[in-house]
Each structure stands twice: as C-alpha cells, then as structure tokens.
C-alpha cells in the first residue's frame, strides 16, 4: 500500500480533502479563499507542481478525524470523540461569520467543536453548512438557508449567530423514517431512507426536487414530515 493512500475522500465546490490511510490525518487542496484547506493561510494549493505532496496536515489536535467532508467554502471532520469540527466559510456553526483556518493559530486546540446538542454518529456533505446524524438517529443541519434547504420551515440561517446551535437547533422532521444517506449542494438537499425512498427539499429550479413542479419545499411550516413527498422513481 502506498504511504499516501487515502481511506476517505470528499470534493467541494472548488477544493478536495482526503483522510490518509497511514496516519488517519487530513490533507486538502484547491481553492482556499476562506481557509478551506485549514493551513493557516488563504493561498490556493495544488495548482503548482509538488504542492499537494508538500501540504501540511490539517491540525485537528487533540482529537483525531474519522471522516472528512468538503462543501461550498467549508470543510468539516467527524472526530473520534463523537464531535464535528468545521473550518473556513461563513456557516461553520460557531455562532459567528468569521472564517477559520485562513490565519495562523486558528486550528488545532483553537478550533472548537460545533455544539449540535449530542454525540455525532455521522457527518454529511451538504454544501453551504453542515448536517449530522446524532447517536439515536436525529438529523440536524445548520448553515445557509435562503431557500429552505435546512428543512426547518423558514428561511433563517442557522449557526451564524449566538444561541442558534445545541438544543436550540431543531432536528429535521422525517415523520420517523430512518435516514440512510443525505446529500446536498448550495441549493437543494435529498435524503435516502431505509425503505429505499428518496425525498428532497429546498429550492426547486428545473424540477430539482423531482416532483414535476418548481415549488420550493422546506421553507414554510408544514412542508416536511409526512407532507414531504417521496420521488416516484419507477
């Protein structure tokens, strides 16, 4: 096995991250305007020979990453102490709109875990912000929400102001259905459920939600849960 083999990979809008097999550490390359690479600068990496091999490891001490996701100007890692830590973009869930990782001294012990109200079992790649599955199955999302992509019945961003995370961050309503996977972009999001159905919410240009219309879902009360239709895939 090559010493630089990867055990996990995720691709953002303009940057990529891997978790290395040999030591479980994370390297990211590509656009770095918001500190997505977590290296203490906002210099892009990977557009010059030898830059990726020579990249510093993303400092996430004292805990160790189990998985990494790369979104839209944000990166997040699922940690071995069942927390999630995010750096870069405006919607990193830390109660402000400060970038993290674009200046020296912002990573490692100075990068706080995000308060999602419980231990984290899984982290999903959803573009602008983050989504996690908590132990017990609840799904919580934060970040950009102009078109209801958080699925919380409004268009209020979450995690960019104090007091919006932790117990104050609601879980998504899926009417008790078990989520297997969740994917998202700058716009809409979709969940795969244990029964094989797929449901999507958020903005709906070009029929992105698969419902034969262009109606946004998740930005108004009563549109999630049992009211959120499954996509007819047959």
TrEMBL record:
Pfam families: RCC1_2. It comes from the Bacteria. This is Regulator of chromosome condensation (RCC1) repeat-containing protein.
């Amino acid at each position: 096995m090559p010493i630089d083999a990867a055990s996990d990979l995720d691709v953002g809008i303009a940057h990529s991250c891997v978790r290395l097999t040999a030591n479980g550490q994370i390297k990211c390359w590509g656009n770095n305007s918001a500190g997505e690479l977590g290296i203490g600068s906002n210099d892009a990496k990977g557009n010059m020979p030898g830059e990726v091999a020579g990249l510093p490891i993303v400092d996430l001490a004292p805990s160790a990453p189990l998985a990494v996701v790369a979104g839209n100007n944000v990166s997040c890692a699922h940690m071995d102490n069942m927390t999630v830590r995010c750096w870069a973009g405006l919607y990193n869930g830390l109660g402000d709109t400060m970038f993290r990782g674009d200046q020296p001294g912002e990573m490692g012990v100075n990068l706080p875990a995000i308060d999602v109200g419980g231990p984290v079992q899984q982290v999903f790649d959803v573009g602008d912000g983050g989504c996690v599955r908590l132990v017990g199955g609840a799904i919580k999302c934060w970040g950009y929400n102009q078109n209801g992509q958080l699925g919380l019945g409004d268009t209020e961003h979450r995690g960019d102001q104090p007091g919006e995370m932790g117990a104050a961050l609601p879980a998504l309503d899926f009417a008790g259905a078990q989520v297997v996977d969740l994917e998202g972009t700058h716009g809409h999001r979709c969940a795969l459920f244990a029964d094989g159905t797929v449901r999507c919410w958020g903005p709906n240009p070009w029929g992105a939600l698969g419902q034969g219309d262009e109606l946004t879902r998740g930005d108004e009360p009563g549109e999630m849960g049992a009211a959120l239709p499954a996509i007819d895939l047959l």
